Amino acid sequence: MHHFTGDIHTTRHFLTGVDARVKLLCVLALLVMTVSCRGCVFPLLVAALSLGTCLLMGVRPRQLLLRFAEPFFIAGMVVLLKCFCSGTTPLFTIGIAGLPLTGHAEGLREGLLIASRIAGAVSVVSAVGFATPFTELMAALAWLRVPRGFIEIALFAWRYLFVLFEDAQVVYCAQKNRLGYAGYRRGLSSFGTLAGALVIKAFDNSQTVTTAMVQRGYDGTLPLLKHRPFRLAEVAAALVVVAGMGIVWKL
Amino acid sequence: MNQKIRNGFSSVSLCLCGALLFLDAAPAYAMHISEGILPFDWAALWFAVAAPFVAVGLKRLNALSRDDLSFKPLVGLMAAVVFIISCMPIPVPTAGTCSHPCGTGIAAILVGPFVSVLISSVALLIQALFLSHGGLTTLGANTVSMGVVGSFAGWFTFRTLRRAGAGLATAAFIAGILADWATYAATSGILAAGIRGNDPFWPLCLKIMVAFVPTQLPLGILEGAMTAGMVTLLQKKRPDLLAKMRVITEREVANHA
Fold it and tell me: What sign results for the dihedral spanned by CA atoms A205, A207, A210, A212?
């Protein structure tokens, strides 16, 4: 867990006590509004509010930057792609290696709309990721009638992700210290060995884990977290947020 | 005035190109379709396309885990392996960037294409929630490209080549390559359909594919080599595991021993 969210789930903040189902429903409503929006303002407002929420929860700016590196790269690429490949009204022309490239107004506008939607949607999902532990999110998804088998596989994956991750790091360091990544051919061979070793460890662990779980009464289904009843205050607060954002979205 | 605007835009475009080159040299995990990139109707459509495959995967999982209680933990751990593999950056010499393999080719070879779809959807969900790779709204689209297309391309290629008499490593190598390339072709198509607006589909799709080529062409070969390496290691160290997964027959295990 620490690898992805730092120590944010161990510190208390104003969203710690809020029911995961309420947070998830709120986020899903905001996501639907963001991706179906036809203007840049609403997604950017969602992004600003979500980033503000992350900072208020105590998420470090560096962590946010790392989280946003990939989506922002993609957003930049989409803006460039749309600007140079879509639209009819020329806005500017540049030459790269003797090739003239013309940017178009309509393409730039569409690219910026998509980029703003990426910023809004990524921010809101990051906020719920930082605000809610994985097991609570899975229990909330089970409440939303996501199939039990899917939830169980996700819980197993999450539980052993870090064990396997550490195993992979140990194997990788051992390979690297023995010049396993000196040159592409050798690097490829080492990477294949590393991935194969992980599959073997996964298989062995699954046998050990099953034996241990059967001894503790496992019959093929994992127990999930029990939800407490909804609190009126948090449901009302969520409804106010969603309704308020809905009004802005409609405007 | 016009000249000033032109100069201004030229400077901006130069900055953009500079930024592009700068970003291109940094590790870029341009793998999954990012959160928010697809409009609502397209996102919903891809969820609808992915849902039957995930449902069949779940049905197979439940059927197999009734016979063998360790199957669910194994699939969960395979999902963790796919997650880790798809988080490992691999340097791509032609593009000067880092990208990462999909891992669904090997998952499909080991546990079959439908369960592999389930594995990739779980890995994608965790990546969306905690790494912002992919997203919740694009989970359906990414499951279709990486899970459905990648898994079926890898599994079908591997089975066909094995039936044609190809060696385990050769079949795994080609299956790994095709699974990766098929994933990126599907990603290009889905992305082009989602962002094209009023533009025609094919030119934009081709442009996106061309943009992927410098990274994905060599990466596919790297993924093929990785898949072959994995299968070869499993054959050497744990042929029983490959036999259990029905990748090789008991007779081949005996021959190998």
Answer: negative
Dist CA A29 CA A243 (whole Å): 10
Structure tokens at A37: 């929006």
The residues, ordered by sequence, that sit 6+ positions from A18 with a Cβ below 8 Å of its Cβ are A131, A234
- The verdict on A123 touching B (C-beta cutoff 8 Å) is no
- Say whether A70 and B62 touch across the interface (CB within 8 A): no
What residues of B are in contact with residue A218 (Cβ under 8 Å)? 69
Asked if the structure places residue B50 within a domain, the reply is: yes
pTM for the full model?
0.86
Q: Which helix (DSSP H) or strand (DSSP E) does residue A103 occupy? A: strand A99-104
Is residue B14 in some structural domain? no
The yes/no answer to whether this complex scores an ipTM above 0.85 is yes
Parse chain A into domains and list their residue ranges.
2-132+228-250, 148-215
Both tokens of A180, joined, read 């396993």
Polymer length of chain B: 257
Helix locations, chain B, DSSP H: 2-25, 40-67, 71-85, 104-111, 113-130, 139-142, 150-163, 168-195, 201-237, 239-244, 250-256
Which of B92, B123, B119, B109 lies closest to B222, judged by CA?
B92
Residue B15 lies in a domain: no
From chain B, the residues in CB contact with A96 under 8 A are 17
Inter-chain touch B58–A149, beta carbons under 8 Å: yes
Does the distance separating the beta carbons of B12 and A92 come in below 8 Å? Answer: yes
Answer whether B40 sits within 8 Å of A119, measured CB to CB: no
The rounded distance, in Å, linking the Cα atoms of A199 and A178 is 22
Q: CA of B56 to nearest chain A CA: how many angstroms apart? A: 12
Number of structural domains in chain B:
1
What CATH number does residue B170 fall under? 1.10.1760.20
Interchain CB distance below 8 Å, A196 and B233: yes
Domain ranges, residue B131: 34-256
B22 within some domain: no
Using the beta-carbon criterion (under 8 Å), do B35 and A125 form an inter-chain contact?
A: yes
What 8-state DSSP symbol labels residue A186? H
The one-digit pLDDT tens for each residue of chain B (257 residues) are 444 444 443 443 433 333 333 333 333 344 678 888 898 999 999 999 999 999 999 999 999 888 888 888 889 988 988 888 877 655 545 444 456 778 888 899 999 999 999 999 999 999 888 888 888 999 999 999 999 999 999 999 999 999 998 999 999 999 999 999 999 899 889 988 988 878 888 888 888 888 778 778 888 888 898 899 889 888 888 888 888 888 888 777 777 66
Residues 145-164 of A with CB under 8 A from B: 147, 149-150, 152-161, 164
* % of chain A beyond a pLDDT of 70: 95
Q: Is B137 helix (H, G, I), strand (E, B) or coil?
A: coil
